[in-house]
Write a structure and sequence with these properties.
The complex is a heterodimer of chains A (400) and B (222).
Chain A lengths: L1 H32 L6 H6 L6 E2 L5 E4 L4 H15 L5 E4 L2 H8 L10 E4 L5 H9 L5 E16 L9 H8 L2 E3 H6 L4 H9 L5 E3 L5 H4 L10 E4 L4 H15 L3 H4 L4 H9 L7 E4 L3 H9 L7 E5 H6 L4 E3 L9 H6 L5 E9 L9 E2 L4 H9 L1 H4 L4 H4 L7 H13 L6
Parallel strand pairs in A: 1-13, 2-3, 2-4, 8-9, 8-10
Antiparallel strand pairs in A: 4-12, 5-10, 5-11, 5-12, 6-7
Helix pairs in contact in A: 3-16, 6-10, 16-19
Chain B lengths: L1 H16 L1 H26 L2 H5 L4 H7 L7 H8 L2 E9 L5 E8 L5 H17 L3 H16 L5 E11 L3 E8 L7 H44 L2
Antiparallel strand pairs in B: 1-2, 2-3, 3-4
The chains are: A alpha/beta (400), B alpha+beta (222).
């Protein structure tokens, strides 16, 4: 009888222990899900492991176009989990990728925000520097748009027009037949040994007689901005690709150089960083026909002051970006270094990367009417959002 | 019939040897092939049409000009250039186009081509279109091999559609040496043309001098 009683006590004690543990775990889960910070006492009570992180806060580098979004997500994560305020550096996508791929350790960033996909060469640089596990999260859509001040002339442009207007050198064969003053045409005719000539176009109608007779003046992103890389590939390379002298260049590097070397002021002026904040202010108050290259978020922000120009006959809209019809749409990404996460013993570079990824990919952030939508970006399709969530959940390694 | 066959053989030879000269004869080749093909089809009956998807004439026409077919245009976007066309006319005609690697792809080129392939897939889901897309996809994938590249592509449409790839070692990318060679050739051509221009100018002046002297002389005369 005594043995039975002692057994009962033992079972009761064990049940209580298990119950207390379950209640504690549930409380912890509820607290973090509701976004309430955990007090140090409660944290100790819930037996959260002491972590041996090399850095007290997450470090995020990358796109200046995504700076506002990154800050908003960081703030949200901080409020929900009680993590330290992340360091967010808007250095541009290209520079961000360079820093991200430079190595593993506390001195290197944990996350990079990018307005384009990681390139093959950047991926290779990451691999070479020991960053073998990169988690890619495509979180939404954005677009690049040409805008002008409200009330100025609005005209349709194509990649070909923009390449011919902004490149440092253009194919001679085109200049010969273009609508240029006779002196320039004669000069081009005589320079028959040249494949390319220094860009002689100063007015839009010299490139295409259907365009207005207004001077070419475009404010674009600086060389460090990810938007510049996007403009290079989606506009400049697309515009030059089908010219015969360009096609005759066998090396990709040489061809890219020829297509993406810009002429200088006054036809093309690159706006220094923070590009996003400066570009609209420089376009406003300029002569008729002055254009700016901006993102959709900036267009939304300043829509009472600037108007979009049609591109390939299409005027940008949220529906067109979501539906994939607008040609200058792009996907925006976050990349996370798995090697910086804490291991089972609580050792690693920084705490909170999983929480950051979970918050970044949940529907409240990237879904319709979510944070991303409210901040002028366009949510991607449900299946793509699910992919981002899955990549974050299972820490899927990026393969390129 | 024999005369037409002879024209086809001569023109095919010209296409290989001197593509520029063959340009004018292209239409006559196509016309001759049309004639031969219609004769073959009328002999073999409608069964031939059922197993030979595009006619040789349609294929040849779609290979050239501004409005070249989607597939051929995509092959060019993938960095390949038409080297020559082999044709054989008979009861089972043979038609194959040989493409060689000419141009490396940049990342933007690759993305643009992938987008084009997607659009093509939405537009045409047919068997031939699928095969065409598979060929272009293979070229795209091969462009990322690193150590090897597809140096030659042989696309056959008749008697049955097929593609053969020749893989060759890349011996280093085109980035370094090819750039240097390309620039050196460009520079050399520029210098040669400059020299030629100067020589022509000297000759023109030399020709003008006696004329000027004689005209000056006549002016001096009382």
């Amino acid at each position: 009888m005594a043995g039975v009683n002692s057994d009962r006590w033992l079972i009761a004690a064990l049940t209580m222990l298990v119950g207390a543990y379950a209640l504690g775990a549930q409380a912890q889960q509820q607290m973090t899900a509701q976004g309430l910070p955990l007090s140090p006492m409660l944290r100790d009570a819930l037996a959260i492991q002491d972590v041996k992180a090399a850095r007290p806060q997450i470090r995020i580098v990358g796109s200046s176009s995504m700076h506002d979004l990154t800050l908003a997500v960081a703030k949200d994560v901080m409020a929900k989990t009680g993590l330290n305020e992340p360091i967010v550096e808007a250095v541009g996508t290209r520079e961000g990728m360079r820093l991200f791929c430079a190595g593993v350790g506390a001195e290197f960033p944990d996350i990079v925000a990018a307005v384009r996909r990681i390139t093959k060469s950047e991926y290779t640089a990451c691999m070479d520097n020991g960053i073998v596990d990169i988690i890619e999260m495509p979180i939404g859509l954005d677009a690049v748009i040409l805008v002008t001040e409200k009330g100025d002339t609005v005209f349709n442009l194509t990649a070909r027009h923009l390449y011919l207007a902004l490149a440092h050198q253009v194919p001679r064969e085109f200049v010969v037949t273009a609508n240029v003053p006779p002196g320039i045409a004669r000069m081009a005719l005589l320079a028959y040994s040249e494949q390319f000539l220094d860009n002689p176009f100063t007015f839009w109608n010299q490139i295409d007689s259907r365009l207005p007779a207004i001077p070419i003046k475009v404010y674009g992103p600086s060389i460090t901005a990810g938007t510049r890389d996007f403009v290079n590939s989606a506009i400049m390379e697309a515009g030059c690709r089908y010219f015969k002298p360009i096609r005759n260049i066998p090396s990709a590097a040489e061809r890219v150089r020829q297509c993406t070397t810009y002429r200088g002021s006054p036809q093309f002026v690159d706006v220094p960083d923070p590009y996003e904040d400066n570009v609209v202010s420089v376009v406003l108050g300029e002569d008729d026909g002055t254009l700016g290259i901006v993102t959709f978020a900036i267009l939304e922000k300043y829509k009472d002051q600037v108007v979009p120009l049609p591109y390939n006959g299409l005027t940008v809209s949220e529906e067109m970006i979501a539906g994939g019809e607008y040609p200058l749409r792009r996907t925006i990404y976050y990349y996370v270094k798995r090697a910086h996460m804490l291991n089972a013993k609580g050792e690693g570079v920084v705490r909170g990367l999983r929480e950051f990824m979970a918050d970044l990919t949940n529907e409240a952030t990237i879904g319709p009417e979510g944070l991303l939508d409210r901040m002028g970006r366009v949510p991607s399709a449900a299946v793509e959002r699910e992919t981002a969530r899955r990549n974050a959940g299972i820490l899927k390694r990026l393969e390129r | 019939m024999r005369a037409h066959l002879a024209t086809v053989i001569v023109c095919a030879g010209l296409l290989v040897a001197a593509p520029a000269r063959a340009e004018n004869l292209f239409d006559s080749v196509v016309d001759t092939l049309s004639y031969v093909w219609s004769t073959v089809v009328s002999m073999a009956g409608s069964a031939t049409e059922a197993v030979t998807p595009p006619t040789p004439m349609a294929t040849l026409r779609s290979l050239r000009g501004e409005d070249k077919g989607e597939f051929w245009s995509m092959l060019e976007d993938a960095g390949y250039e038409l080297q020559h066309i082999n044709t054989e006319v008979g009861l089972i005609p043979r038609l194959e186009a040989i493409y060689i690697f000419r141009r490396e792809l940049s990342e933007a080129d690759r993305e643009a081509l992938e987008l084009r392939l997607d659009q093509y897939a939405r537009k045409d889901g047919g068997l031939i279109a699928r095969l065409e897309r598979a060929i272009v996809h293979s070229l795209l994938d091969a462009s990322e091999f690193g150590e090897y590249r597809i140096s030659e592509l042989k696309v056959s449409f008749l008697p049955l559609p097929s593609a053969a790839f020749v893989l060759s070692p890349t011996e280093g990318g085109m980035d370094g040496d090819h750039d240097k060679i390309y620039r050196a050739v460009r520079e050399q051509t520029r210098e040669l043309r400059q020299m030629e221009r100067e020589r022509a100018e000297r000759e023109r002046k030399a020709l003008l001098r006696p004329q000027q002297a004689s005209s000056n002389g006549s002016l001096l005369k009382p």
